[in-house]
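Hello,

Following up on my earlier ticket. Below are the two sequence lines again, exactly as submitted.
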Amino acid sequence: MTDPVLEVSDLVKEYSGGGGLFRRGVSKVQAVSGVSFAIAAGQTLGLVGESGCGKSSTGRSVVRLVEPTSGSVRLSGVDVLAMGERELRSARRHMQFVFQDPYASLNPRMTAESIIAEPLRVHGRWAKGGPARVRELMEMVGLSPDQSGRYPFSFSGGQRQRIGIARAIALEPSLLVLDEPLSSLDVSIQAGIVNLLEDLQERLGLAYLFIAHDLAMVRHISDDVAIMYLGKIVEIGPVDSIFEAPRHPYTRALLSSVPVPDPRVQRGRKRIVLEGDVPSAIDPPSGCRFRTRCWKAAEICAVEEPPLVVRSGSVEGHQTACHFPEDAPALV
Amino acid sequence: MSDGPLLSVRDLRVEFPTSGGLLAAVDGLTFELSAGETLGVVGESGAGKSATASALLGLHPREAKVTGSIQFRGQELIGLGDKELRPFRGDRIAMIFQDATSSLNPVLRIGDQIAEAIRAHYDLSRSELKARVVGLLELVGISSPAERADQYPHEFSGGMRQRAMIAMAIANDPDVLVADEPTTALDVTIQAQVLEVMERIKERTEAAIVMITHDLGVVAGLADRVLVMYAGREVELGGVEDVFYRSRHPYTRGLLASLPRLDRRGAGGRLHRIDGNPPSLLEIPSGCEFHPRCPYALVGLCDVSRPELTVVGDAHWSSCHRWQELEPR
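Thanks for your patience. The regenerated structure is below:
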């Protein structure tokens, strides 16, 4: 990879839980437990997993919306976690966040123009051509500049998400962290937002950390994909290799569980049904965290954590954290 | 038993009074359901899917005005009061809700809750009840069902709660099972558990299933026939392969084309997008409700005249003026 825009190593985020009136706060929720990845300019890493796997905490930690417990985050080579408040504020220009819910993330009392203009004002770019820049941004995201005086409630969900994206790209960042940007939108609206994100990436060379649970959408938009389970990346690699030759049992189960909207194809697929729920992140299983639900688990899986490495037979960059990686051909 | 359909819905309308007048959440729905058949009802938010589900069971809010006809084995259900509906609801027609957590009572044991659903309709001995409950939990794939029956909802995993609720819905061997987005709020591996159970019910019981969902993948895997809704109206109805491969409605086609595929490489390709937004029910467009977003819309026709549901093939209907021009792909 050419010099990555974002380089994350050994990222850890723990939330102290418990506490309360009758119990001292000793338990820690291990939301993210040593996650590493990198994204180059113009590339998208899809970060997927089920609720509670730590994908959102990872995204939030990267831009320091929450403070990570340890690890390193480098943005174009610069250590983000070492920054003080002021440095961080100016670095935010380069890394922006797009929220899941375009209803909750836009101030209802601000017009579209003032929402998009806010980052320009904060970073001292309003005086020189601010209004023109807002018009340009609205056009870039497919909104009519005539609507700049309107308030969020008068926009549809898809249009609000476009406002959120315009705000995020206002300062020409190099990285966008997109946290489930499509999941509150109807199917017929999602495609337009995805196409927009792809256009903007091509035009501006943006790196995307695309957090989602919709695996089909992740396949469509990503160059690389990381699969998370209970705070860890269990498999990471080039998108087609992950979807066509997954090696981790969890990845296989996950992919086999997604119904494909094609009756003949779907009726020919074999589903791997996992038993039970994801264990608690307060007290995750020893060794491999997936072993309690894994049909291949053996003694070693409880004792030794499998390293995330390239397994023989995988393409370059396709890493799997499993003592007994699958080797049969893909199942999709 | 008569040869007629199990369930026959004709011109169903569900309207809600608002300050701006009556708002039609469901506007003219017509379909039939035969024994053992699975009908997938698909549409986006506001399409009227859930309002349809509640109307089928008479569970709509009191202020809603339900008209048209819902006949179960020839008996009209619309207009019946709660008491008259009781022999049907939860017995001949049962419902699976989206959210198991709020449909299970947290302070009652799972087994007792299922037993209660049976006892409301049948007079069984304790041992008969117990055997039936254990059998049901087994059918929905819960291991050690006898022990599990003694547990409370909080002792169950999310997927198990959902399955316990399904066990409750099928407790009395219903003829019709209405499932309202039963997989929507679930993670994909839990969704897999629920779909597995739905498939088993389809195989092992005689229940006809109305599967309401926005997930076209779920419909593709489970449904025999598909009903597509848009803005409260029925836009297409047909066999699952007719609707997926030979659709005669631009909305269905657009929706299918806009979906990214798990089983196909996506790199570089653009997704098909449908312009505009689903209309607010307060401002349903004139003529065909889909015309402002439709690439086939003709001025003077589609914006003026509302298309009727028309036979376009063998057991295949579409409400589009221009269905003949939509060649099967």
